[in-house]
């Protein structure tokens, strides 16, 4: 992969990476608010935010490469079904390393992973939800000279144009009085 | 569609006589084909737009999720789990599944006609609609959700809840008044808030929960018939009735959903203009005096209809049912963690009133190994309060404006935007007065009033839904036997519990 291609995909990765990072950092931020030590909060934020940011960015890259279709939930669900438990496992190990200088794994790793996989579906819905909100705006900014962003943006644009066109048609119809019906009541014994 | 909906054999004839049924379709002389439903104006036949592609991930369900993922999911059910164990959650499963069916059936009428369910009720029997007009005022002028959210915010920040609640009310009013077109603003705002809520609760649950918590939570959902003796007491049965009503969107929120469907252009709602904010009320297009119907005899139109049904079913199952379940499972996992760490919390809740229980749960979360949980819990309660307020105030104003515009004589000289703004600022003003000079016992009492009337409205709207969908729609798009049975069960379920609670304990809901 060329440097340019990597730079392009790196730019495309930003929305997913930011959502992932903010999810991790939120836990650290809340810890600070309720009086945890700065070290503990930073360790939690970094240890969870880093893997989630990498995975979130990875998902955006899959979209940019055309491997995953935007707006469809199943790929996001599957991606995080695997990715989220991995991120939490990395978090547990990394947090241990940062706080006590020694990586620590949960006692029942399989049970832990199974539990995280279940929770991941909720995370996947929230991630997709936010990604659909933020990605088009960001892609519009970076699409010049970035083919991956341009292609993904074009996908969103086609959808938006179709919606806009449909809206305009409806508005025209209403403006012409067709939408309002111009109804004349029957003269005979109907029930209108 | 009934045979009468086919083109008239003599297009220039002297008119047609409608068969003596409640609902018919016919071609009016020299004019256009219409669908007659009830005694109100018939609906002209128009083309059904194409259903959106799958990319349209965020539908108007965002409102139902915002309204549905409320106090029931975050507070009432986790509290019940702490007292009765996760087995009590089978009642929640029934409540939310019932609501998903109600959502699909509400959508059926709204998408087929572009009319709200209030209009549908008026087609069946106008006083039914006025009943909901009155109930909406009685229930939703109380700023219960916002004040409970503000109370939680006070726990975190120390800012008095009355101050936060009053500021919140004014901010909501200004926001909706300044918005050019209200629906897109609200969808964006709630979309982000819910996204944050869902991601946040998932991360919080993943940090503190255990596999056993999820299995017991999920297992509890299938313990049909589990009903401990204590739950049958005067202290707890009314609470259970209220909690079941609060599972998913409670009260009239499902009815308002039909207005959001219409404003988002779903189905025949595409033929109805969007409501504008007060600032651009002058640009408000004229509202038609009734909805429209599509040609159900046309196979191409029926294919599009099936596309719309698929779209709304996706919304109902994945977004509404799925998110509501996930959020409530996450909160239940948090509650179980708290109970494991602080076994005395159940007794605290038994002894305390609502506010004490809220604090007790937050403290229990804090004692569950990480004080961060207290902040997370209270922060989410505050966020849910804000979510619900945004959705409720908009929905209330939308519903009342819709009924006023169409059914109050002379109201049409005001635009829909102005009526919307009138109801919005009316409810805000009342809310501020209540918060400043109203019931001194705080947000809990306000929520109690809301819970009783909500449950009653829900039983009633199930009956209305059956009447509207089975009598006012063309036969090919009427509900099948299963949805009818489920909605019928809903009516018996809500009203039956209410009456039983009243007769047996002399209390309606808690």
TrEMBL record, chain A:
Keywords: Membrane, Transmembrane, Transmembrane helix
Stretches that traverse the bilayer: 12-34, 40-65, 77-100, 112-131
Region feature Disordered, mapped onto this chain: 167-192
Protein name, entry field: Uncharacterized protein
Organism: Micromonospora pisi
Organism ancestry: Bacteria, Bacillati, Actinomycetota, Actinomycetes, Micromonosporales
TrEMBL record, chain B:
Organism superkingdom: Bacteria
Region named Disordered: 1-31
Name of protein: Mn2+/Fe2+ NRAMP family transporter
Biased segments, Low complexity type: 17-26
